[in-house]
């Protein structure tokens, strides 16, 4: 990646800016040459309030509490948010050794390696800063660019729910992938 990119924890004073970035990111879902990367309709392309609230609340919880969430942002040389990766608890007892991952890259920075950089950074952070042993993710099964990236970085498909979503009249399968922190 040729650009000057930094990855850092999402600071509480930047949460509103981050949520605005997420809303803009979501607006690309399934548009033009972008695959459907979230299971939401083209009529509903905005960040749900519950998700925004989970970022606000989850950042302040310890990694031992259900509902914790950690977001990390990629910023450019102007300190603008251009990508993110986040982990959150599975919100079930006895799952503290696992976390669920989400990520995204701004449209102007896609296909430049930022997704790989974010995942590699998060895997390293998880290994060195937490007791998390596995990172899980869910991906729409038709999102081949994302699935190829995840495979390349060590994620393995462990299941698929057929016809999980009916979005804008189309059936979509949902795949679960996982990576062991080594």
Could you describe the 3D structure shown?
Strand 4, helix 3 and strand 5 form a beta-alpha-beta unit. The protein has a seven-stranded mixed β-sheet with strand order 1-2-3-4-5-7-6, with helices on both faces. Helix content is 26%, strand content 31%. It is built from four helices and seven strands; from the N terminus they run βααβββαβαββ. The mean pLDDT is 93. It has one domain: Gcn5-related N-acetyltransferase (GNAT) (Aminopeptidase). With 182 residues, the chain is of the alpha+beta class.
Question: Outline of this structure?
Answer:
This protein is an alpha+beta fold and 182 residues long.
Ends distance: 25 Å
Low-confidence stretches: none
> What is the CATH architecture annotation?
3-Layer(aba) Sandwich
For the CA atoms, what is the radius of gyration? 16 Å
CATH superfamily: Gcn5-related N-acetyltransferase (GNAT)
| H/E series | EHHEEEHEHEE
Count of β-strands: 7
CATH topology: Aminopeptidase
Oligomer: single chain
Helix percentage: 25-40%
CATH class membership: Alpha Beta
How many alpha or pi helices?
Answer: 4
Category from helices, strands and their pairing: alpha+beta
What distinguishing features does this structure have?
alpha+beta; single chain; 26% helix; 7 strands; 7-stranded mixed sheet; 182 residues; 4 helices; Aminopeptidase
Layout: helices, strands, pairs:
Layout (H helix, E strand, L loop, with lengths): L5 E4 L5 H12 L22 H10 L10 E7 L5 E8 L9 E8 L8 H16 L4 E7 L3 H9 L3 E12 L2 E11 L2
Parallel strand pairs: 4-5
Antiparallel strand pairs: 1-2, 2-3, 3-4, 5-7, 6-7
